[in-house]
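Colleagues,

Please find the record for the two-part complex below.
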Amino acid sequence: MGEAIAFYTLAAFILGFAVLVIATKDTVHSVLFLVLDFLFVAALYVLLEAPFLAVIQVLVYAGGIVVLYLFVVMLVNLKRPPEAHQDPRRRTWLGFGLSAAILAELAAIALYSSAGAAPAGPAAALPVAGNTEQVGWLLYTRYLIPFEIASMLLLVAMIGAIVLAKREL
Amino acid sequence: MIDTFVIPLVKILVVLNATLVAVSYMVLLERKVIAWTQSRLGPMRVGPYGVLQPIADAIKLMIKEDITPVRADRWVFTLAPIISMVPALIVYAVIPFGPTVTIFGHAVPLYVTDINVGLLYIVSVASVGVYGIILAGYASNSKYPLLASLRASAQLISYEVAVTLTLVSVILMAGSLSMVSIVLAQEQARVWYGFVQPLAFGIFFIGSLAETNRAPFDMPEAEQELTGGFHTEYSGMRFALFFLAEYANMIVVSSVATTLFLGGWLRPFPNVAWLGVLDLIPGWIWFLVKSFVFLYIFIWVRATLPRYRYDQLMRLGWKVLIPLAILNLVATAIVKVWWLA
């Protein structure tokens, strides 16, 4: 009961801040709501008894990536006159259609998974105890290949960024 | 009832108040030490040898006029000092000041809580504190604060990498992310990790100077170039919050350094048996003494070294400290797997 209350409260905050992120006019305020949103998602992880994930969420998303967003927002002048917001090429109906399609897809997935699969039982016994150790164990055994591919992707992105930034190197 | 509610609340109160008092006296200590370095007396007027100076400062800052610039982003301008201060205070929750002691028949651990991701918690909360500086510079709508906050964010992000990498070497040694377990691991190994990981300790020290915006890396508030840096437009108590947050952060990094590299609440040289008499001194005193030494070195460094240039700072961070930290991490892992396993 208490858990349900906590979950729905957190979920309401997450959704509310998500709406504010896209509804706010000022870009910096929007980024700040994004930070708040990430912090509440971290609280959700705490509720799921995944403290490692919660802390990483704060460290990587709230503390790392969004700082870079803020950096970009502050360096780029985004204050445009109001008439610039009226884009004649804007495809409003296409946007609504695409959103509806994604909503339908998510709903279908939710219905299918809740009807089909049994609720996930206790995770298979791992040879290590502790949240952090278990995450590490799973990453280096069951999910080794996705993990390595992700690190390859990051390496490629890093090299790409260096190449773009230092063309004459 | 007493064990679940009263004792934690009392501990939180004690830690918060002790921190705030310590922070205000750090300011006095800094002024005194720098004055002595420069053959001056420092504050002498309020109380004997100026020991009541922090109280006078606090009264002055509270009754000063609180100005918000007209063109400032009012909400963010108000929020920024709060965002600086709160992370600096909540990290004290996981810092182990001492082992479990018995007070009036209750076993009381001398830390607010011990979570099994304690060290990561400190790093992540500290990374949120960066927003205070960035937003202060942005919201002031003034060019020097904005420049300072851009410098600050670049500096903090760069040095965070090196510092976190050194923390990983320590985590490898201890096999745990919990602050208490790291101290216990040093007790079991009978050595402070500062002696086993001197390189990591050195990088951590330099990095923490940069992370707390201390001289010689006090670029974000370089008063000669930036008229005071990111908090130029702040006045009164809001300015004081930034000031206090900086000193609270200094105490945090000293406490973390003490816990990770100087054995936390352990006595010096836990491997030498005949020094066992030193165990008569309670652990929390050892902890405070070690943290104090670290803080003193912070001030000493500020009084001694000139400020780095910005490009030198970046070069040091990316081309020296980060490669060294990675090297140290790899070496630690190899030693741990081949020799110690």
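Chain B has a mean pLDDT of 84.

Comments are welcome before we finalize the supplementary table.
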